[in-house]
Amino acid sequence: MSSDNSSDVMSDAPTTPDKYDRMLVVLHWVLALGLIAQLGLGIWMEDIPKDPPGIRAQWFNLHKSIGLCLGLLILWRLGWRVTHSVPAPPSGLSAFQQKLGVLNHRLLYVCMLVLPISGYLGSSFSPYPVKFFGMALPKLWGPSPEGKEVFSEIHEWTADVLLALLALHILAALWHQLIKRDGLLSRMGWSR
Q: Quick one: which H or E segment has residue 45?
């Protein structure tokens, strides 16, 4: 076999990229901003008084509409992530640090999926319609205070877990950028 053939075989081997592709970078930052804004809106909404009628419902409907949009973006990102190569973990990390990073990312995905699903299911059990930017969506079942309570609790607990995971994710990114200086953020579109 000539050396030309061996180079052809080598060029067909899958390669690990140095950076995330543009779509994953865009989805990462859009979801990061959207989720942080949505978490802030969710926390702020809890203190909106029920009187006068309508104001609280408008904010909750906006929160639900944004949540459904983020849910679709999360599915898109997850599908893209599964079907596209990503960079290898940064060198110089212990096995524990690598496992912690993988666990954090997986739990972030779980939370990002559970939040819109639990929010929608909880809203479906309420006596009020679920509105997507003003358009009423079909109800899956009749009102159930117990069902609403269960999914509302799941929604709130998942939001709390997501906040903790995001804090850990951001702290790890800052540690990589400012202390380790290993260029990790450059893989997500930030220059070093």
A: helix 22-45
CA distance 68 to 70: 5
Q: Is residue 25 part of a domain?
A: yes
> Over the chain (192 residues), what is each successive 10-residue block's mean pLDDT?
47 69 93 96 92 88 96 96 86 88 95 96 91 90 94 97 96 90 78 45
Residue 99: give the domain boundaries: 21-85+93-188
Q: Which residue has the tokens 């804090």?
A: 167
Has residue 131 been placed in a domain? yes
In angstroms, the CA 153 to CA 183 distance is: 39
pTM score: 0.84
Total number of domains constituting the chain: 1
Q: How many CB atoms lie within 10 A of CB 27?
A: 19
- Euclidean distance between CA atoms 98 and 104, whole angstroms: 10
Does 141 reside within a domain?
yes
Quote the tokens at residue 92: 């110089």
